[in-house]
Specification:
Elements: E1 2-6, E2 10-13, E3 19-20, E4 22-26, E5 32-34, E6 40-44, E7 49-52, E8 55-58, E9 62-70, E10 73-82, H1 92-103, H2 129-137, H3 154-160, H4 176-186, E11 199-205, E12 208-211, E13 221-226, E14 233-234, E15 240-241, E16 244-245, E17 249-252, H5 268-280, H6 290-301, H7 308-316, H8 322-331, H9 334-347, H10 358-373, H11 378-385, E18 389-391, H12 397-407, E19 410-415, H13 419-422, H14 428-434, E20 444-445, E21 450-457
Parallel strand pairs: 2-10, 12-17, 19-20
Antiparallel strand pairs: 1-4, 3-8, 4-5, 6-9, 7-8, 9-10, 11-13, 13-14, 15-16, 18-21, 19-21
Length: 458
Amino acid sequence: ESLQIEPRAIELSGSRARQSLLATAIYSDGSTRDVTEFVSVACEPAGCLQYEAETFFPTEDGNGDVTVSFEGQSFKLPYSVSNAKSNPPIEFRNEVLQVLTKSGCNTGKCHGAASGKDGFRLSLYGYDPEGDHFRLTREHFGRRINLASPENSLLLLKALGEVAHTGGQCMEMESESFELVRQWIRQGARLDQSTAPEPTGIEVYPNRSVFAKPLGEQKMVVMATFADGTRPGAAFVMARFDKFTQGTAFVVRSGKDYSPNFPTPVNEIDRLVNQRLNFLHIEPSDLTTDEQFLRRVYLDLVGLLPTEQEYTAFMQDASPDKRAKLIDALIARDEFKDIWVMRWAELLQIRTSNGISPKALKLYDKWLRDYVHQGASIDEIVQAVIPASGVWELGSNALSAIIILLIDGPWMTITGLPPSLAKLVTSKRTIRESLPFSIRRRESLSIPLQVEQSCRSS
């Protein structure tokens, strides 16, 4: 058993700074448990930090260490407190908008919808701070904000549920969120100055939780990082701050007795599957019967059911490695390669609905089919399909296919035509007509025919 404390340092700047603590016990079987409410916390020197409700608050400027203890184990992390007595103006983007996000006011099912809700619209999750500020303070003659009496602002009355509100009550009168918005209105409901720091990213703790049984509970801590290097703490259940989102993995085990009996792995994939099943406490399924295996392997590898003769031959084969031999035989068949041609064609969107002519589509398909049947690897196909430049030779299906792919995306410049076609080319129109495929969009075409791709999208 080990104890994990997050974040690894406490850095508070300003009287409104907060930092939540997260303590996780990790057990020998890999499961975890949130033990934040059971730890003891001691600060040295005392007096700079106050620890209450699993959160640190600044009291005096200073530096030191925080010791977190649980069941005989201790963890020490440094702390730093600065400007503990300062009370700078409340920031609209980094504080007020985040209260609205936490309360769910600017979500897609509320005022963050494209058309808003009940005549009031906010940008989705606060993506447009300036627009949100305008709609809050100036739209409809500023009816939502009351600078003379902040407590009677329609924004707060609806949040408290004291005025009819479709979303119901989303704030408590004595909450820190309510007080922050009220103080912002009291300070004039101003928009942030241009020097206000902007968020640059977020981190979510813990990055993974493994519940030993269902119905477990886990606290989450979200840390936002700002352009000026500050990291004020937050403890939102939803891992979203400003325009940034971050996820964390939760694993819930069954809680039942676990005694796995894994078959001997035949290859690296088997080993990795066994390792994952063991981590999730999932017992492996029994091996398939020969009939089940035969049906599945045929459908997976060649997309066909076995014939009667193939079925009989496999069922009568008594060799211990007959499954491995069948897999090798199916992989060597043309149908297996055709399955991969189909998958690549779907990935590359080889279809007439993309504007590719039937003739060009056939050329593209033939080139791809030849490449796959020759045993080209994935990286070789990618290098052939997306080159920056290439020379076209008369009758080359490969470059024809490349041009067809790229002509629907990046802008193209075509130069360098073989002598056999040079006499046919007298204009851009003639070039298009002389190519063995159609071009829907082009930037410039000239002689000779060499394909160059610029870094601009069409």
